Amino acid sequence: FQPRCALPLREAHDKDAIAPGSVSFAPPDYHLLVDSGPQGPHVGLSVDPPPPVARPSSDVRFESAAGHYGPRLVGILLSGANEDGVNGLQAIQAAGGLTIVQEPASASMPTMPQAAIAALAVDHILPPEGIARLLADLHQRQQL
């Protein structure tokens, strides 16, 4: 994905600092969490049993991030073949964060976005291009 992304991408390692302007993704078969520590937020990796759907789990990641970032968090749920992420988006919304879901018609696998739309009143339902524009606008207005 790196050639298509303006931000640096890297596979997360346990205890990595979470730095603005970078993107970390979970290694295979690990949950990626946001942990707190004396030096600030950092990556936590877990091999706890998966929720009913998968490991890594979007729900686990979103829920841990909601607990740390609260209203400063933006949760984005894209294309997927199961309902993972719905509970995590609910946690983000309950913490006062912003929720964005990919327009199901633009998703190659619409099950995840459809499940989120059915379960909660998400803040924005947009195609990928619209999500990119919204993030750019939020960055301009609030310096995300």
List the defining traits of the structure above.
144 residues, 3-stranded parallel beta sheet, 4 helices, globular, two-stranded parallel ribbon, 31% helix, alpha/beta
Summarize the structure.
The chain is α/β, with parallel strands linked by helices and 144 residues long. It has four helices and seven strands, in the order ββββαβαβαβα. α3 (111-119) links the parallel β6 (98-102) and β7.
Strand and helix layout:
Elements: E1 9-11, E2 23-25, E3 31-35, E4 42-46, H1 58-69, E5 74-77, H2 86-94, E6 98-102, H3 111-119, E7 124-126, H4 128-142
Parallel strand pairs: 1-2, 5-6, 6-7
Antiparallel strand pairs: 3-4
**Structural shape:** globular
Taking the sheet with the most strands, its summary is: 3 strands, parallel
Strands across the major sheet, in which order? 5-6-7
What oligomeric arrangement do these chains adopt? single chain
What is the helix/strand order? EEEEHEHEHEH
The whole-angstrom Rg is 15 Å
Give a structural overview.
The chain has helices at about 60-70, 85-95, 110-120, 130-140, and strands at about 10, 25, 30-35, 40-45, 75, 100, 125. With about 140 residues, it is α/β, with parallel strands linked by helices. It is globular. The two termini are about 20 Å apart.
